[in-house]
Automatic annotation (TrEMBL):
UniProt entry keywords in alphabetical sequence: Membrane, Transmembrane, Transmembrane helix
Entry-linked Pfam families: DoxX
Location (main, coarse): membrane
Designated name of the protein: DoxX protein
InterPro entries assigned: DoxX (IPR032808)
Length: 126
C-alpha cells in the first residue's frame, strides 16, 4: 500500500505541478473551442481571477504531493478543483473525461490511504 500511495501521490503531484507551471510560464495559444465550452472559456477568461486562483491551488497541492508534506490538507483543498474538472469534462468536453476520472480516482485513493488523518473530521461532539 505504501508503494502504491507513493506512486499515485507522485503522479498527481507531477500532473498538477506541470499543468500549473505551464499555465504561468509557458502560455501557449488556446486550442480552438466551439459551442458551450467556448462560452464557458470566455467566462473564465473574463473573470480574470478564477484561472490564476485554480492554477495556484493546483501548484501548491502538486508541490505538497511531490514533497510528501501536508498531503492530508492538499487532498481536501484540491478535491473541489478535481470535481470541477470532472464536471467540465462531463458536460462540455466528454473526450477528456477519462483524464478527469483518473485524477478523481487518484485523489480518492490518497484520501483512503490517509484515512486515519481524516477521522477527526467526522467525530460527533457530545
Amino acid at each position: 500500500m505504501k508503494i502504491a500511495t507513493l506512486i499515485v501521490r507522485t503522479l498527481m503531484g507531477a500532473i498538477f505541478l506541470c499543468t500549473s507551471l505551464s499555465y504561468f510560464f509557458m502560455p501557449s495559444p488556446e486550442p480552438v473551442s466551439t459551442g458551450d465550452f467556448k462560452a464557458f472559456q470566455v467566462g473564465l477568461i473574463a473573470s480574470t481571477y478564477l484561472m490564476p486562483l485554480a492554477k495556484s491551488v493546483e501548484f501548491l497541492c502538486g508541490l505538497s504531493f511531490l514533497l510528501g508534506k501536508f498531503t492530508t490538507l492538499a487532498n481536501i483543498v484540491i478535491f473541489p478543483v478535481i470535481i470541477n474538472i470532472v464536471l467540465i469534462n462531463y458536460f462540455l468536453t466528454p473526450n477528456n473525461l477519462p483524464i478527469g476520472i483518473g485524477i478523481l480516482l487518484g485523489n480518492i485513493f490518497l484520501i483512503y490511504s490517509h484515512w486515519e488523518n481524516y477521522k477527526g473530521l467526522f467525530k460527533m461532539n457530545g
